[in-house]
Amino acid sequence: MNRLVVCMLFAFLSAATLRPTVIHADDEVTAGEAPQPVIIPQLASPVPISFEANRLINVMDYLENTTGFPIDVDWPELEKWNVSKDVEITLGLTNVPSGRAIELVMHEAAGSRLTLLLDGGERLHVTMGRKAVRLLEADPERWTMWRATSPPSDGDQPTLYEAAEASMDGPIPWSFEEDRAANIFHYLRNVAEVSLYADWNSLRKVGIDEDSRITGTGDPKPASDVLDTVLTSLGDDLAWHTDDFGVVIISTRDVIDQ
Q: Is 114 within 8 Å of 123 (Cβ atoms)?
């Protein structure tokens, strides 16, 4: 695998964390192509996800133990780039495949700087993106880039995306008086009964954080409209979308538009 191909794949992965695309393995990879999906059954099923300022090392141990799939974290490499074992993770998800949960934990810890590799088809390996490029280049037969894949439609049952969109269409009451953005997102998550992920790493770059204040009230309206109103009150550069796993992602407009 030449350097051009590896660098293009690295750029692809960095952009795909919050808007996932199926990644492939086994086929020969050429520039501009995404590698065939590697389905890991243990990571296709949901596990309970409810973290409130939990240490990253404890979260990764929990995910390994509950999924039953080995996960190696390259702690020396992470800590060299100031990604500490003690980074606090706050994340709540409902009925989301554990592979997608792992991706969002990684993004919560370090934005798009971390990459997931499959080691010999038997273990997940978490490392910095730059280190991942070097590993792929040095031994492409051992290392494969890996991403979670959304489950297929199950007959007449709605997909995770469709179920989340239906929940966001439901009317909810809303009345905020100098409330924290983090509290409002938590309220929307609970009342609309959706998985919601706020990309604070990107939001902070435009001056928005957990303590940003919001005031507004009105008649009940769809949760999607309430979220639009909240984001508009926070700033002009914010947006949201629902990913294929039914997770409502809140971030900056440029990230959402990627």
A: no
